[in-house]
């Protein structure tokens, strides 16, 4: 029962889209609840008839912005485009404000991930921009992992939630030369390694603390619309360039099929 001194006499007449407790995002509220009464799934803005997704796409609300998660072989902001076979391997173009989010059978919510293995092939002429991001929490003190371009160099950054300062690993060679580069990220508990192309790997170990990466199960490619404060300045710019492939823990991610958001292609020359 609610304490009478609180002055609260009635429950909420409205909708709740997301609850975050101590930086932990509570997903699937109705399934998580230990008891409920009179609660039903919300139907309305931003996922209403005006933002209806086509071809059995599912609308995912992000505050007041509706995003369509498309079924296999469809893409586009409304899932209105059918994927051609040749599109599956084409490089995807990012213009600094084009973000894709992923949460599906390839990337599921992982609690206590002790190891991470990510490979990204990209090219850019810009000296800054966020390529890949995943996190859990609203601050950089919470768990996160990022790959970004900072001052023209590739940079791996992560925090496992108990460290005072994030770990930063920066490549030795610039990558803003409009040529294709492959970044290989390997993390084994607190030990992180960044390997660029055929260059020797660069490794470092984060300060003592947690050893597992906890995320909300969502990876952002090309940038993220909501980042915590305290990251390097260059992370707050979206990636501008082309991404040819992303491989997450051995599973290739088809950017056209698995993402939420519209897709533009660039030539593979």
From TrEMBL:
Residue ranges annotated for the Laminin G domain, each copy included: 89-266
Family annotation (InterPro entries): ConA-like_dom_sf, EGF, Laminin_G, Neurexin-related_CASP
Recorded superkingdom: Eukaryota
Pfam family for this entry, one: Laminin_G_2
Domain EGF-like as annotated: residue spans: 43-80
Disulfide bonds: 70-79
Signal sequence annotation: none
Keywords carried by this UniProt record: Disulfide bond, EGF-like domain
Protein name in UniProt: Agrin
């Amino acid at each position: 029962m609610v304490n009478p001194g609180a002055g609260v006499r009635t429950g909420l007449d409205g909708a709740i889209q997301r609850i975050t407790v101590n930086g932990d995002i509570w997903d699937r509220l109705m399934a998580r609840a230990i008891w409920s009464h009179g609660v039903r799934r919300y139907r309305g803005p931003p996922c209403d008839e005006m933002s209806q997704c086509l071809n059995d796409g599912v609308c995912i609300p992000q505050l007041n912005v509706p995003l369509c998660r498309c079924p296999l072989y469809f893409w586009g902001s409304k899932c209105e485009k059918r994927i051609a076979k040749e599109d599956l391997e084409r490089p995807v173009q990012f213009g600094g404000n084009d973000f894709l989010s992923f949460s599906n059978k390839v990337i599921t919510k992982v609690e206590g991930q002790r190891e991470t293995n990510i490979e990204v092939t990209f090219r850019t002429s810009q000296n800054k921009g966020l390529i890949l991001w995943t996190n859990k929490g609203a601050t950089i003190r919470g768990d996160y992992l990022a790959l970004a371009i900072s001052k023209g160099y590739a940079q791996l950054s992560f925090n496992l939630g108990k460290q005072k300062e994030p770990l930063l690993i920066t490549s030795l060679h610039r990558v803003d030369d409009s040529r294709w580069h492959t970044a290989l990220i390997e993390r084994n508990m607190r030990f992180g390694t960044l390997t660029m192309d055929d260059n020797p790997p660069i490794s470092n170990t984060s300060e003592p603390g947690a050893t597992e990466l906890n995320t909300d199960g969502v990876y952002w490619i090309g940038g993220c619309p909501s980042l915590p404060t305290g990251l390097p300045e260059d992370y707050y710019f979206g990636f501008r360039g082309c991404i040819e492939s992303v491989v997450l823990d051995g599973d290739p991610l088809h950017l056209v099929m698995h993402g939420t958001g519209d897709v533009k292609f660039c030539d593979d020359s």
